[in-house]
Amino acid sequence: MSNAISSPIEFKNYKVFNYTYAGRPLVIETGKMAGLANGSVLIRYGETALLCCATASAKPRDGIDFLPLSVDYDERMYAAGKIPGGYLKREGKPSEKAVLTSRVIDRPIRPLFPKDLRNDVALTLTVMSVDPDCSPEITAMIGASVALSISDIPWNGPIGGAFIGLVDGKFVVNPTEAEQKKSDLQLTVAASTEKVVMIEAGANEVDDDTMYEAIMLAHREIKDLLEFINAIVDEIGKPKFEYPSCELDHDMFDKIFDFCEKDMMEALDTDDKNVRDEKVVPITDAILEKFGEEYPDLPTMMDELIYKIQKKIVRRWLLVDKKRVDGRRMDQIRPLGSEVGLLPRAHGSGLFTRGQTQVLTVATLGTLSEAQMLDGIDNETEKRYMHHYNMPGFSTGEAKPTRSPGRREIGHGALAERSLVPVLPSPEEFPYAIRLVSDVVSSNGSTSQGSVCGSTLALMDAGVPIKAPVAGISCGLITAEDGSWDTMLDIQGLEDFYGDMDFKVAGTHKGITSIQMDLKIDGLTPEIIKAALAQTHVGRDYIIDEVLLKAIPAPRAEVSKYAPKMTTFKIDPDKIREVIGKGGAVIQKIVADSGAKVDIDDNGTICIAAINAESANIAKSMIDAIVFEPEVGAVYTGTVTGIKEFGCFVEYAPGKEGMVHISKIAKTRIDKVEDVLKLGDTVKVKYIGLDKKGRMDFSIKDAE
After folding, report:
1. 231-272: per-residue pLDDT in tens?
2. Separation between Cα atoms, residue 553 and residue 545, nearest integer Å
3. In angstroms, how far is CA 194 from the centroid of its own chain?
4. In the β-sheet with 597-600, what is the strand arrangement from edge to edge?
5. Considering the entire predicted model, what is its pTM?
C-alpha cells in the first residue's frame, strides 16, 4: 500500500483589504473561510472578529408574497473568553441583545432587495472575538453589507454603519467602552452613499439639533467607508444571479383595480378598523366570483392583490389629496386618553389610548437583588430596569394562540425600556428593581410608542420619582416618483403598511431619549430627517402636557401599600461577615425575626425590603446592634449579663458585651463582684478602649 501524502492547501482566492475606521484598523478577509456560501467575509475591527455569510436558495419559495430574509447575529461565548451559564453549558436561544442587533441589521438591509425577489436569503453573523472598544454590532453590520455586496445575491447595496457618542459635549465616532459609559448619546446609523437608511438611538434628553448633527456626522463617516467597500466589490464582486420575478401580472391587477376601485375607496374611508375590515370582505368575494375562472391562481394571490389595491388608493390620497383614511390633517394626532390606578393590587398601572391603539402598562417594584442577571459577550452583568411588551392576537381581532415573545415583541419592549432609562432615579435615590409590562389590548398602529406613554403613567402611579415625563409618537412619510414628499404625524396601521417610513421618537420636553426608524424605501434625505424630528417634538410635547400630566400631575409621594418598603444604609465592609454570620446563620435569623428581606452589597450597602415599616425597623435595629462600635470615652447604659471572679460582663448594646475588670467596678476595693452586683442589674459603663490583648475595656466607676 503506497503512502498517501497530501499537498499543502492553497487559498487561491484569498484577499485582505485594510481600512482605518475611527482610528482603528478594519480588516476584511475573503477567500479562506465559508467558501460554499454565496458571499462570506471574516471582518476584524480592532480585536473584534466576525464571520459574516450570505446565502440564498436556488429557487423562489412558493406561495408567499414577501422576501423570506433571515438575519441572525450569533454570539459565541468564547468570543469573550466565557463559558455559558446554566446546566447545558452551551449557547442556547439568542440573548435579548443578539435579537436586537439582528433587528438593527435587518432593517436597513431589507428595503434594498428587489421587491419581486422570493428566494430565501439568510445572513449569519457569527461573533468570534470581542474587543469591548470596537463594537461587534457595527462590525456585523459592515460585514453583512460586504458579504451581500460581493455575493451573487441581487441587492442594491452596499450600506455602512457608524456609532456616535456624545462625551462631554463632543461627538465621538465609534466610542470606546470607557467613552460609552460617559456618553449622553448612543446613536447607530446605517446609510448608503446618498441617503440615511436606518437610525436607532438612546439619549439623555438630547435636543433635536444635536441629534440631527450627530446623524449627519455618521453619514459623512459612512460615505468614506463605502468608498472602501465599493473598491472591494469592484475587485472581487460576483455578477448577480437572475431570478423569476414574482410580481403580480400588471394587466390582471389593472383590470381588477378598475372593477373594485370605487367600492374599496368607500371601504377604506373610515377611522374604524373593524368597519373597514368588514367592508373589505364582500369586495374580496366579488373579485373571486368575477375573475376566478379567468385567473385560476387568484385565490393564492388574493392577500397580495388586496394589499396592493389598498396601497395604491391610500398613497394616492396622501400624495395628491393630502387626505388620511380617518379624515385627520397630516399633522393631527388621533383622539387621546389616559388613566392611572386601574389595578388595585398592582404597584402602579397606566392605560394609554390613541385612536384604536390601547396599551395597558403595569409597574412592579422589587428589591435590587431581583435585577435581571445577564449572561452575554459584553461586560453588562445585570439590569435593574426591565420592560416587557406583549401583543396578543385579540389586540388585532385575530383568533390565534398566545406564544412566547418573538423578535418584534422583544424589540418593542427594548425600545420602550431605552426611552425611559434616562429619566429613572438612581439606585441610591430609589433602591428598587423595576419591571414594566406593556400589554397591547387594542392595536391600530404605533403600539411601541403607546407603550412609552403608558410606561410614564405606570411609573408615576407607582411612586417612582422620574425626572420628567416621557412621551413617544411616530411620524410617517409618503414619497412620489418625482421626488416630492410629505410627512404625517401619528400614523395608524394602514399608513404604516402603505407608507414609506415609521420614524418613532420618544422624549421629554427637554430632549430626545430614543429613536427608531423603519423604512420601506432606499433612504432619507437630510430634509426629511429634520422635518420628522421637528414634527415628533411638537407631538410629544402635546401628549405630555394635555394627556399624561392631566391624568397624574406628578409621581405619587409614596409607593403602593402592596409594594415593599425599602430602607438603605451603609456599614463598614469589614463588618459584612459579622452580619452574615457563619453559614449565613446571623442574617437568616434577622430575616426570620423581622420578616424583612435583606440584601448586602460588597461595598457595605444594605438594602432592607419589608411589607411595613415596623419589620424594616426591626431588621435595621438588629443590624445596627451587630455593627455597633463604642466610642472611647462614651458612657453607655447596659445590663449585667455575667459575673466572674475577675469581673463582670455588661451588654452595652443589643447583642454587644464588654468586660469590666473587678478593679473598675467600684471606687473602693471589693473582694467579690457579687458584693455590689447581681445578674440583671442596670449599670452605666464607660468605654476606655482596647486593653493590651486587644479586648474592649469598660469601667463602671469612671462612668459616674
Report:
1. 999 999 999 999 998 888 899 999 999 999 999 999 999 888
2. 9
3. 30
4. 565-570, 605-610, 597-600
5. 0.86
